[in-house]
Design goal:
By secondary structure, the protein is of the alpha/beta class. It has one domain: Vaccinia Virus protein VP39 (Rossmann fold, 3-Layer(aba) Sandwich), CATH 3.40.50.150. It has six helices and seven strands. A seven-stranded mixed beta sheet has the order 3-2-1-4-5-7-6. Strand 1, helix 3 and strand 2 form a beta-alpha-beta unit. The chain is globular, with a radius of gyration of 16 Å. The termini are far apart.
Length: 206
Amino acid sequence: MDHQHTDFDERAATWDDDPAKVERARAVADAINQQVTIDGSTRMLEYGAGTGLFTQAVWEATGSIGPVTLADTSSGMREQMEKKVAAGVLPDARVVDLDLSHGAPSGERFDLIVSVLVLHHIDPLRPVLAAFAELLADGGHLCVVDLVAEDGSFHGEGFHGHHGFDPAELAGWLGDAGFAQVEVAPCHEIERDGGTYPMFLAVART
């Protein structure tokens, strides 16, 4: 198991104790709800779902959510989501261990794929973007929320992912992956160690 997985496993049990994370999930859910219709028929994949805070926020805001697949490679995070499913906090959700860097699972299709602050951890990224395109149903949407390019201070030394993204560059990568329409807009910000880190929302269609 690599250090990143170990870190998330160890932090999973207390992840939701941070009010800023809960607030961020609600802000992201509000932003995506303004761009995409989510209802009881929407087949949704939250990729890198953590403890499922985004999906939980959507459910609390709309009271209507379709078949949900919550994917995370951290066993600790999946354990927390399973507890929420059992408690009815994440109703009827399916929790899976899924790593799209190895390709998309066959036979799966989603109307909405959401990734919140996940892609900057993934390198190489292009195989995952291609898998998103393969998994998206006709007329569906991919919603990516991540950090605007920063100086590396967000994670500090030893981080081997991306230091955020230039939204225009990411839009180009999404185009290369098969997405024909990509719209990018500001989406919330994170306060950490005296710094402010803006986030963006990219909405893409094939």
